[in-house]
Amino acid sequence: MKKLLLILLLIGSSILTTSVFPTGGSGLPNVADSITYIIPANGQTAIPNLVQKHEGITRMSYYIQFDNGCKYSLPTKDSNDINKGYGFSYALLGQHHTNSSRVGWNWKSDTILLYNYSYFTNTRLQKKINSYARNKPIYVEQWYAGKDTAWIACVQNGKGTAKFVTGVGPINRSSGYLLYPYFGGTSRAPHEMRVTVWGVRFYYN
């Protein structure tokens, strides 16, 4: 509990329990309170494939949940690839490999593993955060500390973990767009998968 309180205080959040969830978004119009993104069998891009721009957010928070279909097995080395969850970029549309921050995930050791998956000036950086259960909410906050460090903190069942990556900055906090679930790497989804996101909030300071 002390670890959870420390993490939540560090990221400037109120203390939350798994039975109390903020709803709604702020800072951007037309952000749905709850969206289930469906990655179809033999696909990579999730449906709906939205285009949602922002004007330079510095931090975002949300809940994300992976369904049972997110358990998978690939018969190749692609099983080590990191799939993409949710996040945001500082770039023109289609250029998120320049500067961006998002939660990455894959299925390992019978659990969902989440990663800090970020780009700094065209260089990808990644770091494992922790393992998480399917079909249970995960509270996520991700933000930039200074111009060269991207933090992601995740909380599930009252246990929190935060990891950061540091790139070759400085990163330009410009306008950009949100990033949504995507399978791969190079392989396509072996079956349908569903990722639900809700309670999205945006911050500009």
Secondary-structure map with pairings?
Elements: H1 2-10, E1 34-39, E2 53-54, E3 59-66, E4 83-89, E5 100-108, E6 111-120, E7 123-132, E8 138-145, E9 149-156, E10 159-166, E11 176-179, E12 193-203
Antiparallel strand pairs: 1-12, 2-11, 3-8, 3-12, 4-5, 4-11, 5-6, 6-7, 8-9, 9-10
Mean residue pLDDT: 83
The number of helices is 1
Per DSSP E runs of 2 or more residues, the count of β-strands stands at: 12
Into which percentage range does the β-strand content fall? 35-45%
Overall shape: globular
Major sheet strand order: 1-12-3-8-9-10
Task: For this entry, give a set of tags.
205 residues, six-stranded antiparallel beta sheet, 12 strands, globular
Give structural notes:
This protein is mostly beta strands and 205 residues long. Strands 1-12-3-8-9-10 form a six-stranded antiparallel sheet, covered by helices on one side. Strands 2-11-4-5-6-7 form a six-stranded antiparallel sheet, with no helix packed on it. The protein contains one helix and twelve strands. Residues 1-31 have low confidence and may be disordered. The protein is globular. Helices cover 4% and strands 44% of the residues. The chain has one helix spanning 2-10; strands at residues 34-39, 53-54, 59-66, 83-89, 100-108, 111-120, 123-132, 138-145, 149-156, 159-166, 176-179, 193-203.
Q: Concise description?
A:
The protein is mainly beta and 205 residues long.
